Amino acid sequence: MTSSTARVRIGCIVPAAGMSRRMGHPKATLPFGGSTVVGTVVRALLEAGSGEILVVTRGELVVQLDLPHDRRVTVALNDDAESEMIDSVRIGLSVLLSRIVEDGCGPRESSAINNRRSTVEDRPLQPASGGILVVPADMPAVTADSYRKCFDAFRLDPGRIVIAACRGRRGHPVIFPISLAPNLDRLTGGLKELVDANSACVALVETNDPGVLRDVDTLADYECLDPKS
Q1: Which one has a higher pLDDT value, 33 or 105?
Q2: Which of 44, 154, 163, 228 is least surrounded by Cβ atoms within 10 Å, i.e. has the fewest?
Q3: What average pLDDT does this structure show over 198-217?
Q4: pLDDT given at position 188
Q5: Is residue 17 packed enough to be buried (19+ CB in 10 Å), middle (13-18) or exposed (0-12)?
Q6: pLDDT class of 132 with cuts at 50, 70, 90
Q7: Is residue 181 within 8 Å of residue 169, measured between CB atoms?
Q8: In angstroms, rounded to a whole number, what is the distance separating the alpha carbons of residues 174 and 165?
Q9: Contact 134, 191 (CB under 8 A)
């Protein structure tokens, strides 16, 4: 990796505020791999060399998440029980954008930040080389190597939307250029709508990792996960 690609900043958002109605229990807090489902996601991101990671969750869940004590990890709050995942992404994006534009801004100590239903349209546009990675909190089987492959692919061509794939099937994470951030306020169908509207600049990254396709929606999904996968 060249010095110029290494300077491409990628912020990570992990939406973990869902009500988990199909599971009947907050799935982000379920035990997995010696931690929790979301704790495993965050640790894989850290192992992959992530910079700033923002976990967006409900206040009542924070102490149950077993997040690592790492200065790169921050918590933002979304306590709206009726919100969708894209709302948590917007909250996370608003926080990350406000930090990225600060000169000399470094990673923050882990803390909880209260956020209203934020919009990003009025934020200053960032350099085209910046990116935002989004991975749902219920995908603990994604390996650190898969995250690295996606980071590397985006840094080589930071104008593209990078999507992890396994045997040609799209999964997560997704990394999109910060220049597309204002579009999130107009989305009604989640990140898929952003991807579909910009299909010409989508790059699939083959990971050979089934974990990029495996989310946890039901108890059966959870019981089928292999913590060593």
Answers
A1: 33
A2: 228
A3: 95
A4: 83
A5: buried
A6: very high
A7: no
A8: 10
A9: yes
